[in-house]
Amino acid sequence: MGKVSGFKLEVSSCALSGHNGCGRCDHPGPAPGFSDSPMTTRKVEVRTGGRGRRGHPGLGLLAGFIAIAWIIGLVDWNTDLNFTKYGVRPREPIGLLGVILMPLLHSGWGHLMANTVALLGLGVIVILAESRRFASTTLILVLISGLGTWLIAEKGTNHIGASGLIYAYFGYIMARAIWGRRLVWAVVGIVVAVAYGGMIGGIFPEGDHISWEAHLAGLLGGVWLGQRHA
Question: Global pTM?
């Protein structure tokens, strides 16, 4: 979620989109508690929940989450506010803000679009599995992926993007398929593995602009929670 001097902004990247790089972030000046050192950006992107009943809150929550990410992006890319500096900054107290904010912050249109598609595809499956606790499941996965990134990622980096959550959804679904002991989940697991299996490569170090740590933390957290819910 080669080295350069100063801070690197690591955005978790999209294993499915094949987008491996990201431009340098220009920022107007340091916010309180932040260094004025140059930043590089790593992106969290990935390749490409209640049930569909009327009034089901899961779909509304997922749509609202994505809408907030788009609003933040529109404001960020058209002003000098530079929200991306508020991502996960490993082992820095100020960086804990990013545990919640990381999945809402993106480096550009391509980054956000790739993550939007993956969030919709995997998020709806999680909604079908967890019609009554989609919100709490998502919150737990966000916290696990964010805190995991804060603990294991390289200090002096900054991680943004929703793919930590996307990898968590993927791990959650696969765990439900393996431990759920139901034919429908076995079928869902096979379909998801075929459609999104290429994401697995994103949990290994791959370039300076890819937050593989967020991907790994999300995947492990998703498997853990999915096994508990199975």
Answer: 0.78
Reading the chain (230 residues) residue by residue, the pLDDT tens digits are 443 334 445 555 444 444 444 443 444 445 555 555 555 555 554 443 344 445 568 999 999 999 999 999 999 999 999 999 999 999 999 999 999 999 999 999 999 999 999 999 999 999 988 878 999 999 999 999 999 999 999 999 999 999 999 999 999 999 999 998 889 989 999 999 999 999 999 999 987 789 999 999 999 999 999 999 98
So what's the architecture of 8-225 in CATH?
Up-down Bundle (1.20)
Tell me which residue of 108, 103, 111, 70 sits closest to 86, measured CA to CA. 103
A 10 A CB-CB count for 68 gives: 12
CB-based contacts of 58: which residues, under 8 Å, 6+ apart? 49, 50, 51, 127, 130, 131, 134, 135
Which parts of the chain are beta strand (E)?
8-11, 42-44, 157-161
- Radius of gyration (Cα) for the chain, nearest Å? 17
Select from 144, 153, 163, 147 the least CA-distant residue to 225: 144
User: Angle 183-47-105 (CA atoms, 0-180°, nearest 5)?
Assistant: 115
Strand runs labelled E in 93-218 = 157-161
Sheet containing strand 157-161, edge to edge, reads: 8-11, 157-161, 42-44
Tell me the C-alpha to C-alpha distance, in Å, between residue 55 and each of 51, 52, 61, 135: 9, 8, 11, 15
86, two tokens: 């508020």
